[in-house]
Amino acid sequence: MRSEVPMFITLFFGLFFIISAFIVHPAYKSAAQELNNWTLIIISFAYVLGVINVARIHAKKLEERRPGWAYSVMTLFGMLIMIVFGIFVPARLYGGYETGSLFSWLFDNGQVPMQATMFSLLAFFIASAAFRAFRVRSVTASLLAVTAVIVMAGRVSVGELMWSDFPRFVEWIMGDLQTAGQRAVKIGAALGAVATGLKIILGLERSYFSGE
Amino acid sequence: MDWSMTVGNVLAVFLTLAIFSFLYRDNPIYKTAEHFFVGLAAGYFIVIQYHTVFLPNLWQPLTHDVAALFRSGQAAQQLAGSLALMQLGAAAQHGLWQAFSPDIKGILDPVTFHGWRLALIVPLAMGLLMFTQLMKKYAWLSRWPMAVVIGSFSGLALLGNAQGDLLPQIKANLIPFIKPGSWTAFWADPGLFTFLDVLWNPVLIIGVISVLIYFFFSVEHKGAIGGVAAVGIGFLMISFGAAYGNTVMTRISLLIERFDFLLKPATRYITLVTLLLLLAYFIITAFKDKHKARIER
Amino acid sequence: MAKPTARWTERLEHLDRRIIFLVVAVGILVPLVAPLGLPVTVTEPVQAFRDQIDGLPPGSAVLVSADWDPGSRAELLPATVALFHHLFQRDVRVLIISLWPAGPRMVEQALAEVRGAHTKTYGKDYVNLGFKEGAEVVMVSLGDNLPATFPADYYGTPVSTLPVLRGIKSYKDIAMVITLSAGYPGTKEWVQQVQDRYNMPMISACAGVSAPEYYPYYQAGQLKGLIGGLKASAEYETVLERKGFAVAAMDAQALGHYIIIGFIILGNALYLINKWTNLGARKE
Fold first, then answer.
1. pLDDT (tens digit, 9 = 90+) per residue, C232-249?
2. Min CA distance, B278 vs chain A (Å)?
3. Domain range holding A199?
4. Would you call A118 and B170 a contact, using CB atoms and an 8 Å cutoff?
5. CA C163 to mean position of chain CA atoms
6. B214 falls within a domain
């Protein structure tokens, strides 16, 4: 039961989605639509579980007063205020999730700036890495460096001032020269994905059963 | 004065600079903002899942639609329709095709037969089983809904990679060695780009084949195979170089947008004041740390 | 015995990274404060993107999938705004979905910038159908029954009451899919699951970091147009004659790139100088 039922479910749903691409009969399509909906709902619960785990970890840290527990208070506070106002508080008291609610205000003025800023930190780190770690020690590394420099120089307006056809040359690099390598990687990865997908559906790969 | 916009700008600027303060060094202001962000993002996720998946796709069809169905008396009609199944007996005499009468089609179609919506109990139950992962004794039950997720994505990945990546990309590389017309065009108008056009197809063919040979590790990369694999590595490095250049472009763009936000007319003075406050904080903490170190010595 | 003082080239090679951060920050700030107004040339994939939209039959419906979040706002908000301007100039119905949770609010931010410039009506000419979990499952589900997959729009209004969705059941009723992509799920999954299976014309605007991966699709004809990154968004704004943030950011983008190039060259030069000097010292 513990492994046979999940393996059967994996096989059923895996085959269902593959077969759905080939059957166009309306009755099948209607039944398929219902199964699609079921899958969406179950996947949604999987992501909710992830969030609940985050809450559990921080609640435990707070309960046990481990170092940094005060920061966990901020995490739980942020989570609670979004959930309470987004789901339980009525719209007339700034509840709900539409524009004008506290939920949307916190998203626009809290989550958006912080998420955008976190990703923008990478610009500084890429500059630091370019100076301290990017070392051209071999012919292949120099190929990488030269291509990177040409693409960076040609992708901006200053490149056009140096040579009016620079953008067109960079487009050749992107559309032809680097496409060759990317295409080969795609073909290789696709072969690997097909093999792995088959192994999972047929029950030959069961590592996702946590421990087997 | 729109207070919510002003307070919003103050909060946005403060949180932006709090995150940027990490560039100087890790500090409690950054950590507080980071943890607050995690909480907001997690809460946002739950609310959106509730309003856009749980309610319209599960709860409303399961409760309101089924309740409305019974209230309107359609239930009796739908149930009567199921008696059409008894027609199967008669249909067996006339041929299987007669079995697919309109009544039976009506039952099979989820749009017309609302009784299908009761079946939503199944994904609800499966979804709730997901939470058994939090209980050691019953954690094995969570494998069932996980199997749905894994089976679905495996099937879709298999199909998608085969029909979307593998076959079309191979097909796109089955091209003549020299692009038709490119050689003539080059001789008619010799130049860099007409020459690059002549190189277009050979680069793709040689590049893809040499990289695929490089990835074939079942044969030792020696001799001719080693030479071709070396060419493949060259093409790979060019791809990685182009990827690095584009990555730099993306990162710089993200930074430009943040600075643009901080310098907007509505936020620039807030930015200046917040920067000064942060500077004061770092100077005070630096003095405190120095004083503490002197006492400890 | 006293430790020998490091040469200035060795000290420079191990420069405090906060000085590097400061150089980058100043380099980005200066052009934002004093812009140069450098020209922007339109490249072929962006022109193709524009031509595909211009070629849409009047009255047709397009599906826009806004698969991005605040982490990619810099590159994809300008592209989304320019796209909505372009679509609203034409007689097409715009159905907007999102496979990323933050996508619908990003769409709302883009629509807020665009609404005032056009006379399109929500519910009649365009609709924000919101987010749905499931990535590829959603993409495939739309091929069977779009209204069943999105039974209500972002605000909870049943889609059966919205005129914009009249007659639209699946991909058969959609003229083109336009994907705005920052990662997974995004353009790659749309091409894999939808483009070939439903023979769907498809164009993409993506983050710069993803663009190299999508060029093989563009070269193979699976994507009919491609906007990759902020520079390409600036080209799109230029070709539409609606210059916005992307064009304004190009000066800072240029200086940022040349600062990175400078750091790569300087870092390697210092490395080689120190390597040769140390080798020479060891030989002595």
1. 999 999 999 999 999 999
2. 17
3. 135-212
4. no
5. 30
6. yes
